[in-house]
């Protein structure tokens, strides 16, 4: 008589919930966000109705889920790394803003007007494709489907999805990795574009954005301008390896009184028309008016795509990578950057994300610890089973289980206070990011 088939074990309830949560809800929410925001170009009236409704629904869902989230203790332990990464990122942005203003103003307005953009074969290719491709495809390539603030919001949604078990928590862990990687990428970018000043692909940018002097900074007058275009002068300065030319007489530089920040006067090169606040100068630096190798917009896009691919995967990650490529060709097409800036940003972003896996990883470390402990206890388990020593077996299995458990030690009141504060803080960051980056 044949034996009845054994019933397959039922997955644990938590695992089933995780699978259900990750079955596409996050991807649909992300697609809805991008689609609703694009509606501003199609129907501003519908966009005005749909966008607040979508954000309200997402905020309510996060707030309703928060009391049932089981990993607030892990979030609390990740908070110091998160705050440290945020401080490093803000410091990197400050350093970058100072450097952007410097490279945009040091050569003067006349240099921006007279210096031709670099030849860019990527721009040539896109112009050639415009002549060959169907018009509907060209219109799709030109469409402003996704911008900087979209990528930031997509990552924030990814971090919040830890509440719904869509990704492995803690959410602050992946946020810390994202900001740390962003900070390192921004600092590398600053060093790169400071090393060699490249002309903008938009020669009118400086005149439209800044009120800087027409003449070069005294540093450039001494070390660059006399040797900029004369081949004999360039040959002589190479041979002598010393500056030798007499610089022209230019009006003196404006020097506002900035107190402890006066050291920035020579770097930011302020003018009387632009005001007297150093913070105002840094805020106005924006994207700069020299080509900044590599693209900061593309770095944000690539890091967002890498985070989605590692933490969530699925069809939405593939879509985000296509959007990254779409953003890259738009940056080149609209001449915000040269092709090399976008290409370098893509592979630098990928490499940096791979290098910072020690901060947060999608791999279940607790499961790895249990397996390692089980491997070490294997021989002892065999001996205990051979001797029918059930107490020893139970003790060993308990050791294996404890090896995979996270440390506890926070009271419920501390955890609830922390969870409430983090939700309010993160939602405030969402609103600030949306407001400050809404123009791309």
The SSE order reads HHHHHHHHHHHHHHHHHHHHH
How far from one another are the termini?
A: 72 Å
Summed up, the domain count is 2
Low-confidence stretches: 3-23
Query: Beta fraction of the residues?
Result: under 5%
Helix tally equals 21
How large, in whole angstroms, is the Cα Rg? 28 Å
Task: Estimate the helix proportion, in percent.
Answer: 55-70%
Secondary-structure-based class equals mainly alpha
Question: Taking all residues together, what is the mean pLDDT?
Answer: 82
Number of strands: 0
Largest sheet descriptor: none
Q: Rough shape?
A: globular
Structure characterization notes:
The chain has helices spanning 13-21, 25-42, 44-65, 72-105, 109-114, 121-132, 135-142, 148-160, 171-195, 205-209, 218-223, 231-240, 265-268, 278-285, 296-311, 314-333, 339-355, 365-376, 378-386, 390-404, 412-436. By secondary structure, the chain is an all-alpha fold. Helix 9 packs across helix 17. It has two domains: 37-68 and 410-439; 72-215 and 251-355, no CATH class. The N and C termini lie far apart (72 Å). It has 21 helices and no strands. The longest helix has 34 residues, at 72-105.
Describe the structure concisely.
The protein is mainly alpha-helical. The protein is 67% helix and 0% strand.
Key traits:
440 residues; mainly alpha; 2 domains; 21 helices; sphingolipid metabolism
Chain-wise SSE layout:
Elements: H1 13-21, H2 25-42, H3 44-65, H4 72-105, H5 109-114, H6 121-132, H7 135-142, H8 148-160, H9 171-195, H10 205-209, H11 218-223, H12 231-240, H13 265-268, H14 278-285, H15 296-311, H16 314-333, H17 339-355, H18 365-376, H19 378-386, H20 390-404, H21 412-436
Helix pairs in contact: 2-3, 2-8, 2-16, 4-9, 4-14, 4-21, 8-9, 8-15, 8-21, 9-15, 9-17, 15-16, 15-17, 18-20, 19-20
Main location: membrane
InterPro entries: Sphingomyelin_synth-like (IPR045221), Sphingomyelin_synth-like_dom (IPR025749)
Pfam families: PAP2_C
